[in-house]
Amino acid sequence: MTDRTWDAGEPEIAWHETGAEGHEHGGGATVLGFWIYLMSDALIFASLFAMYGVVSTGYAGGPGPRQLFDLPLVALNTALLLVSSITFGQAIPHMEAGRVGPTQAWLAVTGLLGAAFVGVELYEFSHLIAEGAGPQRSAFLSAFFTLVGTHGAHVTVGLIWIATMLVQLSQHGLSGEMRRRIICLSMFWHFLDIIWIGVFTFVYLHGVIR
Amino acid sequence: MSLHSTPSVHGASGDARGDAHGHGSRRGYRIGVALSIGLTVVPFWLVMSQALSDARVTAAIIFALALIQIVVHVVSFLHLDTRSEGGWTLLAFLFTAVIVVLTIGGSIWVMYHLNVNMMPTPDAAAAPMH
User: Fold this and answer.
1) Closest listed residue to residue A203, CA positions, set A124, A116, A88
2) Which residues of A touch B96 (CB under 8 A)?
3) By CB atoms within 10 Å of each CB, which of A65, A75, A147, B24 scores lowest?
4) CB-CB under 8 Å, A53 with B104
5) pLDDT tens-place string over residues A119-132
6) Pick from B36, B70, B27: nearest CA to A83
7) How far apart are CA B15 and CA A24, in angstroms?
8) What keywords sit in the KW lines (chain B) (predicted)?
9) Same domain, yes or no, for B29 and B75?
């Protein structure tokens, strides 16, 4: 099952040993560096949340959250992303045990749930634009599309990353470098779920009751 | 755990370590999953069923639940603790949290007071000219 390609694996393992002193997950300095990236990404989202918070009542005579937001649809999207985070967590023990097949299977399930999330979000966006509530309608809608769209773009990048991992797993197996990549991807994916907590609370739920 | 997955010497030590913190983190992960589902369902239920008549109370509760859920996710899914990376991940996280609170809280606070104090008419709040 684990068809390792040693020619591809060896230089990576040499790299890995130099960077792996006293480190978990076998990622060396990469995991800390990726963590710093996630924190800086959190600052991007913080500025977008701040912008949304400031202009969230700037309707310019246009429709507000109560008329626009469809909470059952948001609940569906939230469930899709949360379950995809959980299914990614199912892949990690298989990865640690070196089982390529189950790792790929759980990653594929995660990718399908993520794709469904992006699909629902695109449906919501197209619906809003068709109603005349596009980003150019008011400051509130500009901020909404920027914040939620930036999150959706991140999820889309995550989907491309998952697809790349699926292909590379079948080519390289679970080499040290592949494990490092998948650990970084799992951090990225869980991070996007955390940002979504802020989105569904601050934008959707609070928007509807405000 | 499986030995065939260990390509080199460091892999063996990695596996031993994986076992050592594997059980604790699996259990923590399951608790995290249960908590995060609950912390997602409750705010949606509160808002969609309009269980509480006071919208301000509902808002305070859903924001508190969101903060708790963020901490749960960071601890059980991102495995943030005081030891990983010699404490550097925790330090980076706390620094980021301070900046996030200042950015969001500060912006909303300042701009709210700017609106309240600068808007010429009382009904401006209904259609502010942002």
Assistant:
1) A124
2) 39, 42-43
3) B24
4) yes
5) 999 999 999 999 99
6) B36
7) 10
8) Cell membrane, Electron transport, Membrane, Oxidoreductase, Transmembrane, Transmembrane helix, Transport
9) yes
